[in-house]
Structures
1.
Amino acid sequence: MDPTQLSLVQAHAWLSSRQISARELTAAFLERIDRLNPRINAYITVDREGAMAAAQRADDRFRNGTATPLTGIPIGVKDLFCTENLTTTCGSKMLARFRPPYESTVTRKLKEAGAVILGKTNMDEFAMGSSNETSFFGPVRNPWDTERIPGGSSGGSAAALAARMAMATIGSDTGGSIRQPAALTGLTGLKPTYGRISRFGMIAFASSLDQAGPMTWTAEDAAIMLRVLAGHDPKDSTSIQAEVPDYVNTLVNRLDGLRIGIPEEYFPDSLDRETRHALEEAQQVLRDLGASMVSVSLPHTRYAIPTYYIIAPAEASSNLARYDGIRFGYRCEDPKDLKDLYTRTRSEGFGAEVKRRIMLGTYVLSSGYYDAYYRKAQKVRRLIARDFQDVYTGVDLLLTPTTPGTAFPLGEKKDDPVAMYLSDIFTINVNLAGLPGLSLPCGRDHQGLPIGMQLIAPVLKEERLLAAAHAFQSATPWHQRKPEL
Ligand code: GLN
């Protein structure tokens, strides 16, 4: 078997029994990246030397008995996690040459576990987008059909994994950026509870929504990754102080007694017909596994997009104020004076979508409009969160489509921001409410493109998501399908 096709569990068994060395495994992935990345554009930076050195250390750990389940596992990391001395661009010209002097907690934990970081994956600029077309480094192509988008903003992490240019990847999700690309590329993508994984060293987009998470082929692999990534971090004041369960031990094959809510607002008439059909079939699989379906309502669902597009840009406009051409990042040539330095640095360094968000954000935060927009949005956010709290008194999980349709052609929505924003309509409320959500494949459309479904759990109930997803994957073949490349 080609080692690039192994799951984390299988690879760990191969490495433990010396059927393969970490160096051989890493070399196989680097070779695949050389072959496929020019077509897919999933990586911005490939760290060959760093990866081979990490693989060498992994082999040592297997020899001296200190290996963990992630030791020697080749991983791709979204290019918004700071990696010490390794270029971290956030998909922007602004940071195209930025070499962080420090390590994000996520990448530090991966390294401490012995994982091999292959490189940094492409993304929408500052994680703003749903198609990976706003990247300064060019669009990422969907391995299932290279004329289509892979989703965004973690499009590079999705495409790298779908094309098997990594064994697992790390994404970030502010409004859907792990779950939506996972759905469009046939993967399992987990956005944990807000605060479950440290945001330290993650380049900020909207700080009250941003959350890191794993992208994997299976729920079992996601459980292995989350076990390493989750946990309190004194360097992130919003990280949660709570025990990290052994997510692998809590996986199950049956779902007897599990009550799954089907929120009517997530199945509008406009939902793609094939997606609706796949979700209906999925419900039947879940029933066969012992779960029961309950119709529920989340009445404030329709305010998701407007609420998010006030709060996220507001926070972004504040977070992105630091890119002023002085402290770090891009600086324009020959500024006339300080104002010219600020203006030209930001005009030249940011792309159109980022500028649109900054303008929107500064507008809704301006003193004349603060109450009308920002404060109002905060109140609606509370109502959205309360909808979920109410519904969880009667159900254990919610099941929804992840996206309104399958992967769309490159360019289709590029010049229509509202159409683009609507592609996250089913994922955004999960961030606004701070809940954990997971997307997993549940079918394919007539063109063979993957269809994803989303499970949403109450705060800190990631094990419930992973257990249900694992049971579903034990009974279905969708997560095993791979694109031909
Ligand atoms: N597509 C959404 C946006 O552009 C969400 C992005 C994200 O989750 N990072 O804001």
2.
Amino acid sequence: MKRRRMIYEGKAKILYEGPEAGTIVQYFKDDTTAFDATKKAVIEGKGVLNNRISEYLFGQLGAIGVPTHFIKRLNMREQLVKEVEIVPLEVVMRNVAAGSLAKRLGLTEGTPLPRSIIEYYYKNDSLHDPWVSEEHITAFGWASPQDLDDMVNLTIRINDFLTGLFLGVGIKLVDFKLEFGRLWENDYMRIVLADEISPDCCRLWDAVTNDKMDKDRFRRDMGGMMEAYSEVARRLGIMPESGQSEMKGPKLVQ
Ligand code: UDP
């Protein structure tokens, strides 16, 4: 069998050349990093859960007409996606003060924001993903005003939809990070949602107790990260019947 070509290895995923032109295989690792990858661990089974959770959320978003790169899940750790040109921005949507925003502006974590706020970070590891404004983005050409407009509109729709979806299963969507890509279809380009949506890149709090069900459990040494991610999957109704043990084996999931 011909060995497939690796295109890129990131902190939590590896991208391989897909079976057809214009496709990519996205492999979810168990590696977990925080604080610019200065803190690292391998959390067994995390990649399997993120693959399932992201598949589910991208599927739901696709069903309401949000264009995404997602094609299908291939197995426990891999999904087939469309090849896109990634816009070098992290688009963060916030509903409740937490993390870097709470720190920067001296807000108490958990304070609802007067309205939802979108922020942009320039994806550049050596610069530690600095916070940037729309002015920087268009002036340096990371995205055109039209691209930016599309990303903002999609982010607002995604936030409205996911806030309701999570609240329906007793989870508060505090904030999350999205990445977008340019998908070329002949001479026509459109902005689509790319990367992943999982507890690695969202803040998810239990709606009643405010218990953290996301990567903050790792960032803040709280423990119980797999249990929290499994609980998110279980509440979304996508946990395999037999529970977590099924997450580890080499068996293919249909
Ligand atoms: N986030 C992310 N990747 C990053 C930075 C942030 O997925 O490189 C997510 C993070 O999980 C949270 C949201 O974006 O849901 C806002 O993160 P914040 O700016 O508060 O930074 P943090 O406190 O995570 O450093």
3.
Amino acid sequence: MNAQGNNLQLYATSTVFTTTLVQRDKTSLDHLPLDLFTAIESLKKELNAVILAHYYQEPDIQDIADCIGDSLQLAKAAANTNADVIVFAGVHFMAETAKILNPDKLVLLPDLNAGCSLADTCPPKEFAAFKSAHPNHLVISYINCSAEIKAMSDIICTSSNAVKIVESLPQDQQIIFAPDRNLGRYVMEKTGRDLVLWQGSCVVHETFSEKKIAQLKIAYPEAEAIAHPECETSVLRHASFIGSTAALLKYCQESPTKEFIVATEPGIIHQMQKQAPHKHFIPAPPLNNCACNECPFMRLNTLEKLYWAMKNRTPEITMSEDIRLAALQPIQRMLEMSA
Ligand code: 13P
Ligand code: SF4
């Protein structure tokens, strides 16, 4: 083939390639409604669905949700809903908790890969061995764990009620606290109790730079630092208030302070800003120049994926009935203890 023939062949190949790409794009655009908010609202009615969203979700998802909350509020909402379908805009362990509480409902998670680095630090086999090594201990597990870990636990807790639940137990009761070592250390400090800690942690909450927070406090002398108890002790010691996402939100709204350095996933700032538009919220920076203070798992959910999940009624959360029944008891204990 001569040079011109070669060129023609190349041209023909790239034209076909371009045409295919354009058609694919057009096809997917054709199927995605222009007004996703209206389309999701109408699917909500059609399915008798409720959308539950965590504060770490992207703003559009928070804005379309029927209930936005921290892990405890969302577990309570899941326990009390009359909807037939629960669309969980959060991570896998949260949707799993909703399914444990609602075996007959369809529970959808927009992206099944929305896991949790903290839950992943606690594999069931290793945890079973850890538990056997402490036979006289009661197991309190943070809700950020798999259904298998919940099934091996006595009581579930969240960052909202961990201190209260530990305090309610007799002083001489020995306790394993899993999987978050930072929340565990915080609970030990608040209660003066000695807990046996599983050494798990969250990649997002361990990313904050103590040095950069200290620098921000100098740059903004009026600002108060506030933090989630999943942060390391080095960060928590700079915080004038420590609490779950819901508690942080409430504190910002009620405090006379006008400026806050927020050491948790920055998705929460959408609600902080909505509830107190005149206040200034500064996300606590990570160690590196990255967006690693954003939870990569929470952010896998998008409004588009939420629409497709409702439209196609998938991906659905499923689990074995044995695990579900064993995991249900410690969740119910938590709900009774935080009524
Ligand atoms: P809360 O929802 O209890 O504040 O926990 C935050 C978190 O990391 C959820 O994954
Ligand atoms: Fe898990 Fe951390 Fe993401 Fe929360 S912020 S879902 S604990 S990885």
4.
Amino acid sequence: MLNGLLTIGDLNEQNLNDIFALSARLKRQRGTVEYKPLQGKIIAMIFAKSSTRTRVSFETGIYELGGHPMYLEQGKMQVGRGETMADTARVMARYVHGIVIRTYDHQDVVDLAKYSNMPVINALTDRFHPCQVLADLFTMQEFSGSLKGLKLAYVGDGCCNMANSLMLAAKLSGMELVISSPEEFKPDQEIFDRQFGTGKVSWEKDPMKAVANADYIYTDVWVSMGCEAETEKRLKLLSPYQVNSQLVAAASPNVRILHCLPAHRGEEITDEVMDSPQSIVFDQAENRLHVQKAIMAMIFDKELKI
Ligand code: CP
Ligand code: NVA
């Protein structure tokens, strides 16, 4: 049903509905129903960047589905010393059954999938984070019942992997997404303009205007992994985009707060908002596990019925 997952752009509406239906079932049945579609399968997990949620949820999910996770630090592999990603892919395909990868250059993930001819799941690149936004959409669907017509305001760095993936996810699911960022961090023009799905994406410089009537406010760190050299500039330009009580008060009274985490409390989000009853960030983090299990089942279970 799925061959892998490199970006949300690989999916159609049916795929999305299937992922959500299966995620809900696996969440409900966790710990009570035996389901081992990865029995006998080894899934390599190549990580070039830090991770808490992604690594732990994938290792847990692979184990729960009966497979064996093999964690590999990209910097300790020969690809870190000049072997090409294409040759790495050709070799890995002789040993394992699938690859989960978190790295910098999105092209490396594309090459890995092309030359391994094996299922590859993108666990974050500089450009996209599809597993995270699928968990985000699933969480919003759980809380709101349906995604169609919901208004999501994303406030902060408008051109990072999260903003890019959220644009595609909003378009595919029929949501209204407003990205609020300074001019210097405006959304990627190609993704912003892409004809895909039925949702609407817009940009609004003023965060107070962006959150008006929003059902959800979403933020991400101001300094993504790999952007550390720009820390000073980013903190300065993005400081008016902090998700704090004043901003939350400008949204719908029932607004809920999302963050992919890790949060840098006191920068993009205050403690008060993170720890408020409106914050559903830990439900969102939990859903990484259920959604990624659904993605892997849809790749590896050839008899799967949803
Ligand atoms: N949200 C997310 O991907 O978290 P980690 O960086 O901890 O994996
Ligand atoms: N934009 C962040 C997301 C972390 C999950 C980063 O790339 O560091």
